[in-house]
Amino acid sequence: MTRIAIGIDIGGSSVKLGAVDERGSVLVRKRVPITQEIAFQDFVSTIAAAVEDLKPQLPAFSAIGIGVPGTPDPVTGMLLGRCPAIPSLVEASLLGPFSQRFGVPAIVRNDAICATYGEMRHGAGRGLNRFVLFTLGTGIGGSVVIDRKVIDGPNGLPPQLGCMSMDPARTDIADPVPGMLENLASARALVNRYRQLQPHNPAANAEIVVDRARSGEAMALQAVDEVTRWLAQAIGIMSNMLNLEAAIIGGGLSAAGSFLTDRIARHVRDFVLLKPGRPPAIVTAEHGNNAGLIGAGTLALDAVPVAA
Which Gene3D superfamilies match (predicted)? Predict the structure, then answer.
């Protein structure tokens, strides 16, 4: 019988959750809106109730995986440091409340680590040994896979891909790291750059900027080109160090598909030592915004021994 886990992917304005089987398929899913100010106990109650709503549609599940926008200790589940997306999550661990409520083992991991694991096991990284995954949204997250292992640091500390300093002379975007990638190439950065180029006709979000670029608007095309070149520079630096096979582009901005990845691929050749190396393939995450949900569930299943 195929085992099932509940995957929970916590974002700043909503939580995605669903049942994930051993093939990485999402059997049922649900999205729950939340506010940044939600209290810890209210958060637990709200998400536990959403899991209960899924139970009638499922056979029994054997684990729960939770992806959080912060740095959780993999043993205790306690967040180390701040959690700006939902500050109350630093008050206690999510492990106990969910494991005790549903009587199954639970794990808590960083959301970018979950997304990378999901794409490695069941997505665009399933045939790759060495790759980086970028999650492009309001910020930039992600992780690196070397020899089929998702790389993190002490106590589960995820790589801070968005904090790479690409242009340290940029005093206008010097916080917290001068000229860092997140302030140059995230969805938020794309909107901000377009607003600078087109102040009299701004766009409310990155999707609108991309749509205008697709239609041929010059300022939107310039903004997209600048963002993709910054991403290509970051990918080139990492590829020169690690000889990566690919860079997988996930997060909300990945919805632009080949319109985005083709431009990154054209630019990346300017930043990669081609001999004896090779330019990494630039591909879109197969599971898009579901990668974190799938990865959280898959990590939970892989952590639970199969019953004899």
Answer: 3.30.420.40
